[in-house]
Design goal:
The structure is a single chain. The protein is mainly alpha-helical. Helices cover 67% and strands 0% of the residues.
Length: 136
């Protein structure tokens, strides 16, 4: 760099422009290298967040694989066909009992759940479905 800078008077405009750009790039990269080396010597190297996130995710996967599989509650599937909920009380009561039992197994509070409110809910949903089917 020093040898070519001494010849700047012999260079034409394009050569001086190109040399100037190269000198600036060299200075910039030298400064970057100096800063990185300083951080490395001080022990304060910046970590790339993407790499850190991947490492954390891999640790989570390893931890989950090491944990024993917990017993999950079985899923309940109940199907009823009910055109008139007010006239088919046994079906609605069976659905209510299954719903209440599932909520209890899930650890949810069932104190506020009443048969009358559930009956009203089923009646409303039945009317909604009927109106949707007649609209189609």
């Amino acid at each position: 760099m020093k040898r070519h800078s001494d010849r700047s008077s012999q260079m034409n405009f394009a050569q001086r422009f190109r040399y100037s750009n190269l000198a600036q790039m060299y200075t910039k990269y030298r400064e970057i290298f100096r800063k990185r080396l300083k951080k490395k010597e001080e022990g304060t190297v910046d970590r790339h967040f993407g790499a850190a996130a991947r490492e954390i995710e891999n640790l989570r996967k390893q931890k989950q694989a090491a944990e024993p599989v917990r017993d999950l509650p079985q899923a309940w599937t109940i199907t009823i066909s009910c055109e008139e909920p007010d006239h088919e009380k046994k079906k609605v009561e069976a659905l209510y009992a299954a719903f209440r039992h599932a909520k209890e197994q899930a650890g949810e509070d069932t104190a506020k759940l009443t048969r009358e409110a559930f009956q009203q809910f089923v009646r409303q949903k039945t009317n909604d479905l009927k109106s949707q089917q007649s609209a189609h």
